[in-house]
Amino acid sequence: MNLVKVEKAQEDGSDAVSNEQHVTASLPPLPPNATVGAFPHEKLDAYRIALEMARNAKALVEQISRGHSSVADHLRRSASNTVLLLAEGANRRGAAEKRQRFVESRGEAGETAAACDLVIALEIGPPNLAHSVKQYAARLAAMLTKLIQRLS
User: Fold this and answer.
1) Residue 121 lies in a domain
2) Of 145, 40, 151, 41, whose CA–CA distance to 96 is shortest?
3) For residue 124, what pLDDT is reported?
4) E strand or H helix at 20, and its extent?
5) Is residue 29 part of a domain?
6) d(CA 37, CA 145)
């Protein structure tokens, strides 16, 4: 059953009135042992490491010199793709599909590390932060290697 609540809101100081509809779905109660957001990828330590790597990569991207947007963009995309491919793999059913996504995620982690090497070599961002992101990428690559081996 859907519950619809209609509110009338008045804009700042004007007489114009707009209608906003807020729709809330009435969901069945969760089973006693269920956890909200319990996707398979959320149970992996590798996923948490990947998220932390992406957070640090974002902080690094924000500090990369302006003339190097291509490196910053590549770093942002590879860090994000690492997380997304890992999650996709964890949620696949077949071992071959899982393995392929984990291999792709490991490749993206390698690209993230290489982008950090560029930041350091070209001196376009803080090297300590680039080293930190690279350490997360290396740790994640090792974890993904183990996951891939288990599926082989």
Assistant:
1) yes
2) 151
3) 97
4) strand 17-25
5) no
6) 26
Q: Which structural domain range is residue 125 located in?
A: 40-151
Residues 138-148: tens digit of each pLDDT: 999 999 999 99
Query: pLDDT value at position 72?
Result: 98
Q: pTM for this structure?
A: 0.76
Question: Tokens 């963009």 map to which residue?
Answer: 73
Domain assignment of residue 73, yes or no: yes
CB 47 within 8 A of CB 84: no
Number of domains in the chain: 1
Helices 69-90 and 95-121 pack at an angle, to 10 degrees, of: 160
91 within 8 A of 100, measured Cβ to Cβ:
no
Alpha helices per DSSP H over 5-93: 45-61, 69-90
- pLDDT at site 44: 93
Q: Report residue 100 as tokens.
A: 């392929």
The CATH number assigned to the domain holding 144 equals 1.20.1440.60
Residues in the chain predicted with pLDDT less than 50, given as ranges, are: 1-24, 34
Q: Closest by alpha carbon to 83, among 113, 118, 116, 42?
A: 42
